[in-house]
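Journal club side-thread
Mid-discussion, someone asked how the predicted structure for our own chain would compare to the paper's figures. Pasting it here so we can look after the session.
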Amino acid sequence: MGNVYCVFCGCVEQSSIGVVEKWGRFEKLAQPGLHFFNPFAGECLAGILSTRISSLDVRIETKTKDNVFVQMLCSIQYRVIKENADDAFYELQNPKEQIQAYVFDVVRAHVPKLTLDELFEQKGDVAQAVLEELEKVMGAYGYNIEHILMVDIIPDASVRKAMNEINAAQRLQLASVYKGEAEKILQVKKAEADAEAKYLGGLGVARQRQAITDGLRENILNFSSKVEGTSSREVMDLIMVTQYFDTIKDLGNSSKNTTVFIPHGPGHVRDVSEQIRNGLLEAASAQINEE
């Protein structure tokens, strides 16, 4: 139910305050409830003010220190002071326009001192400056400023796009650094694995050659002991010829080989065996000299 009044009486609802005049002059404030007036004595209810918190949204366009135009949405929450309701009723014709004018003045005095990044970081300081100025001014007119909120800061669309591109470029740069570090670690690990594989392969080849040498030595000793009148050289020639024919057999059976031209004949076989034997003798001689 709203405020109801007539010439002789008036009802002021909760969260409201009435202004009573006598012969056109302020007489008193009427608290919530029913009040009777004497029109013959010049008393009347001149008006009623709400003491609830009101909200006013103000959109301000201004420029920052780094020449970026921004729009700021400021929300002011204010209310009438009950004890000074007569000042609020008589002093200001349009309190919203008055509040808006002071908000424009304070914001446009502070924002040009800040860069865009500083404005986002210090928007609370700007709101505090507006609050202090409004409390000082509007308090004299019977209004109390409850809260001031900087709801939003909206730069120009082209500036927002540029800021997003800068942020994206920075993230791509950071991703490239991480990717490079990962590739570096992968290459190092791959090189370490390759070196380890070659080392183990070398050990395998060395053990294979050692096993071949031990086998040849054992075969020569066994053959010489069982067949009388044979020398170690003759046994070695026989083993070399046997291995030579085994190699030719493997080459012929391999499906991945095409035509292979190799010298073949009794003389060539003897040459191969002599070359192998000479190589072994030279290696043994070199080892004795080193010792």
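Post-session note: The longest helix spans residues 157-226.
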